[in-house]
Design a protein that fits this description.
Blueprint lengths: L6 E6 L2 H15 L5 E5 L4 E4 L4 E6 L5 H4 L6 E4 L7 H8 L12 H6 L17 E4 L10 H6 L26 H7 L4 H8 L18 E2 L6 H13 L2 E7 L6 E9 L2 E10 L4 H16 L7 E5 L8 E3 L2 E3 L1 H6 L12 E2 L4 H13 L17 E4 L11 H8 L2 E7 L2 E8 L6 H13 L15 H18 L2
Parallel strand pairs: 1-4, 1-5, 5-6, 7-15, 8-11, 10-15, 11-14
Antiparallel strand pairs: 2-3, 3-4, 8-9, 9-10, 12-13, 16-17
Helix pairs in contact: 11-13, 12-13
Length: about 475
């Protein structure tokens, strides 16, 4: 109401929730005399000074639709339900509307009012307001962008957050009493406004398993690189995606620990480019002298014969190895093990660690057995998606009783897992171990005489040519 012709987009993921909750609360607060018209079906409220609120549901929002909006302010309710890509699209439209007016009394009161650097007209303030319940996912975009203790350590300095528990004075006492009988994790999240670790989390990566290259002293960093490039067993692990992103992880195994130190994550590209990028990054991370020292494993799915070429069946693995029609450096993959539950447990064992592991930087023990070298200014090809996706994996929710959630052993298929699958493949390969020596059957046993008969038959066939 301060700025005539101001434009606001009020958003929520699902329209029925937008109408039944967000819109209802707005009109409980907004004085009726400010409103000129309200069209619930069209999703538009106009005010007596020409300002507008557009009511948008985001479950059908796409880039083309978002690009059409020119607004001064954005409000997203229940932001934990909204995809990061949609938030970024809508956030980019804030400040685009240039017809909102600054009243004369403010210009007189503040002679140095901000003005457009090129055109000189007075600028109205622009806002982004996000309302959400605490996420149990520290890698959700709300947590990453706005929490003071963000895992990316890059909370936006121009923003602040307010965290509050439920206000008992605004609720019926019997309702508050009923809330307090529910499961403690539900109370922590929805009543106290606290971050909680979901009971459905598949993995929990502690800070001790994350290595920030920008926080390591130069001497320690040089020593770590020398170990990786000269002493460690090196692995490249691939998860190929036709329509989904393709991911490759670089892993070093030394002194009994595992360090994921490199990551390539690229959607919507062809195999020839993937081959070239993986080769080039390998040279940067490990020096050209180590190109023949990698143990290369990939999703076993790429070895399935799905097409024909040159009169024979062809696989995605063949495409990575082809040297006749693709000029970029070939990559020769071996099939990894896709045992879901066994590798899931193995990852947790390594994350928990113990006395047999030593931290490669601090030299402390007990320590985790697996580490993620994060991307940073010093090491731009470090882990990002692998860290996010491994932490975000959730078990499939079966139901909820009195606030307590019950989960299946299956993972939620809606959570991206391209980089996480690479983590699983590596752990599965490493966990294969040595084969047991073949046992010799005891003399005079049936197996012993059967073996002698096969050997004699083989010798006779050899002599007969």
């Amino acid at each position: 109401m301060t700025f005539p012709n101001y434009r606001v987009a009020a958003c929520r993921q699902v329209y029925k929730n937008l109408r039944a909750s967000t819109m209802q609360t707005f009109f409980k607060i907004c004085p009726a005399e400010f409103v000129n018209t309200h069209d619930e079906n069209f999703g538009l409220t106009t005010f007596i000074n020409g300002s507008r609120v557009y009511w948008l549901h985001l479950d059908q929002m796409d880039e083309a639709t978002a690009k059409g909006f020119e607004i001064n302010a954005l409000l997203i309710d229940q932001a934990e339900e909204v995809e990061e890509a949609i938030f970024l699209l809508m956030d980019a439209r804030v400040g685009r509307w240039d017809k909102a007016e600054v009243p004369d009394y403010l210009l007189k009161q503040f002679p140095n009012w901000p003005r457009h650097p090129k055109w000189g007209y007075p600028l109205v303030p622009n806002y982004v307001d996000i309302l959400d319940n605490p996420s149990d996912d520290e890698f959700h975009w709300v947590s990453r962008y706005f929490d003071a203790d963000s895992v990316e350590r890059k909370p936006l300095s121009t923003h602040f957050s307010i965290v509050r528990k439920t206000d008992d004075d605004l609720n019926d006492a019997a309702t508050i009493g009923q809330i307090l009988t529910r499961d403690q994790s539900w109370i922590d999240k929805y009543y106290l406004g606290l971050k909680v670790i979901s009971g459905g989390a598949v993995h929990s990566i502690q800070k001790s398993s994350r290595i920030n290259p920008d926080e390591i002293e130069e001497e320690q960093w040089t020593a770590l690189l020398k170990i990786i490039r000269e002493k460690a067993s090196l692995y490249r692990i691939l998860d190929h995606g036709e329509t989904a992103p393709t991911c490759c992880l670089w892993v070093a195994c030394f002194n009994g620990i595992h360090l994921i130190f490199g990551e390539y994550y690229q959607p919507n590209d062809v195999i020839s480019n993937h081959r070239q990028h993986i080769h080039d990054i390998s040279v940067i991370l490990c020096d050209e002298k180590n190109l023949d020292n990698f143990n290369d494993y990939a999703d076993p799915q790429i070895f399935k014969k799905t097409g024909q070429k040159n009169g024979g069946h062809w696989t995605t693995a063949n495409e990575y190895a082809d040297t006749e029609e693709i000029l970029s450096p070939p990559l020769y993959w071996a099939p990894a093990d896709n045992n879901e539950l066994a590798t899931r447990n193995r990852i947790n064992e390594l994350l928990r660690g113990g006395g047999k592991f030593v931290n490669p930087i601090t030299k402390e023990s007990p320590a985790p057995g697996i580490y993620f070298l994060e991307s940073g200014e010093r090491w731009p090809y470090g882990c990002h998606q692998a860290l996010i996706e491994t932490t975000r994996q959730r078990k499939l929710l079966l139901g909820e009783v009195n606030g307590k959630k019950f989960y299946s052993e299956d993972r939620d298929p809606k959570v991206p897992d391209h980089a996480y699958d690479c983590v699983r493949y590596y752990v599965a390969v490493h966990g294969v171990g040595m084969k047991e020596p073949e046992k010799t059957p005891p003399r005079r046993s049936f197996a012993y005489f059967n073996r002698i008969h096969k050997l004699r038959t083989a010798v006779d066939n050899f002599r007969q040519g």
